[in-house]
Design brief:
Length: 147
């Protein structure tokens, strides 16, 4: 079930990859604790189910904000290792070190389909909680303006 209000997300101690900021979409609700990605236009967007198999989650939103119709505001997000809901207990111990996918903005699973890549499984804490490492930028060809 997707986040519809601000939420505290478990983060492993000393795992923070840092705070980044990218311009958000126009007229969009962002909640602290939701997974976000950079869309094809270079703007930060909340993850939704079936966001797109070519998309990659870039972090966890650090603020709750509703952007305006002509938004120029940069939305802050954090990278690191975070606890997310394990979709239908689908992620198991043998998935540690493997890519997982964003089912919605707070749930990860093993099914790629049209779901964005969420990150790499760091730890399976239980059948309902999995820790995933999210890095940004993902490779040398991606850049981010953190000013």
């Amino acid at each position: 079930m997707a986040i519809t209000a601000e939420k505290s997300v478990l983060e492993l101690e000393h795992s923070s990859g840092g705070i980044h900021a990218i311009q958000g979409l126009d007229s969009t609700q962002y909640f602290k604790g939701m997974m976000v990605y950079v869309d094809a236009n270079g703007k930060l967007a909340p993850v939704v189910g079936s966001a797109g198999a070519t998309l990659v989650v870039c972090g966890v939103c650090q603020e709750t904000v509703l952007t305006g119709a002509s938004n120029t505001r940069k939305i802050q997000f954090n990278t690191g290792t975070f606890g997310f809901i394990n979709a239908a207990a689908g992620i198991a111990q043998n998935d540690v070190g493997k890519e997982v996918y964003a089912i919605d903005n707070e749930t990860v699973g093993v099914t790629a389909g049209t779901n964005a890549i969420a990150g790499i499984v760091y730890e399976v804490a239980s059948t309902t909680l999995v820790f995933v490492t999210i890095q940004w930028p993902r490779n040398s060809s991606q850049t981010v303006d953190a000013t």
